[in-house]
Amino acid sequence: MAGTIPRYDICRYCQERFAQSYGPGRKKEYCSIACRQKAQRDRDGRLGQRPARSAHPLGRRIAEDLQALSAALLEAEYDGRPLKELLRCAGEVAREVEYYTAAAVHDARTKGADWEQVAAAAQVSATTARTRWTESRVQERLKRRATGRAAVRQTATLPAPGRDAAEDRLLAQAAERASAKLASALSYLHRASELTIRDVAEQTSLSPSYVSRILSGERTPAWPVVRTLVDLFGGDPAELAVLFESAHGLGPRARHAIPDAVARLQAALRGLHLAAGRPQFGAVRRASRGVLSTQAIREILEGEMVPGWEQTSTLVTALGGWPADVRPLWEAIHYAFLFCLDPVPEGFRQLPPARPESP
Question: Residue 300 and residue 197: Cα distance in Å, rounded?
Answer without folding.
Answer: 33
